UniProtKB/TrEMBL annotation:
The keyword RNA-binding does not apply. This is ABC transporter ATP-binding protein. Residues 23-260 form the ABC transporter domain. It comes from the Bacteria. Pfam families: ABC_tran (PF00005).
Length: 264
């Protein structure tokens, strides 16, 4: 069996990947600093995230998980290679175009819920569309609100909601504009395990029932087990992937990083 199926994907017919990839990186490198402070955070990473799939990105601390997500979401520039959302390569975009693409095609969920404290839950959910001057699709919004179980909390401000409820608002906000892809960076990092499980269940359902594409960075093998696929990073490179992960199988794989000094 090919030990690096991700890397050899590029030999498959281009038409197949073009049709199914919501986002992809090709030979993506990211270097921070110069001279003594130079750090290669990503080293020629090639990966694609298939439409309608839930992918978790895992790896030891400092392996490049957040950098990969930030480069792919256009929040950080790349040093070499390319990052593409749908069929748009981010490197070719001017600042304004990039802002528009992020607003229209990407949903974000962060560890710290990033809600505006003076707005109600509903106002937070529709804020990106309000800024863009777009009218929400009410039927879709109702479905999203019902799926995250917030119907009776829409008038509440973030301070009147629990952490788990605030993160549900953030998930609903990410979904509201039907983005091509949602990037979630440690979405359960600030939540107790029960609220975390609710958020993960919700993200998984948004993939299964709403056809959403989700990419999530996590340290937690249990969180990763909600995904369809786990991509493992070490030292800025993709070193492995796993389909149909369980918490145990992910934990076993992570233990091998520790045993082998962070490389596979
Ligand atoms: N803005 C920056 N300037 C300099 N170095 C950076 C910057 N951002 C990240 N790095 C370095 O790049 C490497 C990868 O960092 P990154 O945050 O992507 O790792 P990570 O896998 O997300 O780590 P963690 O799990 O600890 O959050 C690290 O060595 C980090 O110190």
């Amino acid at each position: 069996m090919d030990p690096h199926p991700i890397l050899s994907d590029w030999s498959s017919p281009v038409t197949t990947t073009l049709l199914t990839a919501a986002a992809r990186a090709v030979g993506l490198s990211k270097v921070y600093g110069e001279g003594d402070t130079r750090v290669t955070a990503l080293d020629q990473v090639s990966v694609e995230f298939v439409r309608g799939q839930f992918t978790a990105i895992m790896g030891p601390s400092g392996s490049g998980k957040s950098t990969l997500m930030h480069c792919m979401a256009g929040l950080d520039s790349v040093t070499a290679g390319s990052a593409t959302i749908g069929d748009t390569e981010l490197g070719g975009l001017k600042d304004k175009q990039l802002t528009k693409l992020r607003r229209d095609q990407i949903g974000f969920v962060f560890q710290s819920f990033n809600l505006l404290p003076t707005l109600s839950a509903l106002e937070n959910i529709t804020l990106p569309m309000d800024i863009a001057g777009r009218k929400p699709d009410h039927a879709w919004l109702d479905q999203v609100v019902a799926t995250v179980g917030l119907a009776d909390r829409l008038g509440h401000r973030p301070s009147q909601l629990s952490g788990g409820q605030q993160q549900r608002v953030a998930c609903a906000r990410a979904l509201a504009s039907r983005p091509a892809i949602i990037f979630a960076d440690e979405p359960t990092g600030n939540l107790d395990s029960r609220s975390g499980a609710e958020i993960l269940g919700f993200l998984r359902n948004s993939v299964r029932e709403l056809g959403q594409t989700v990419v999530m960075v996590t340290h937690d093998p249990v969180a990763a087990s909600y995904a369809d696929r786990v991509v493992f990073l070490a030292d800025g490179r993709i070193v492995d992937e796993m389909y149909g992960p369980t918490a145990d199988s992910v934990l076993d794989r992570m233990r091998r990083f520790d045993a082998k000094g962070r490389t596979s």
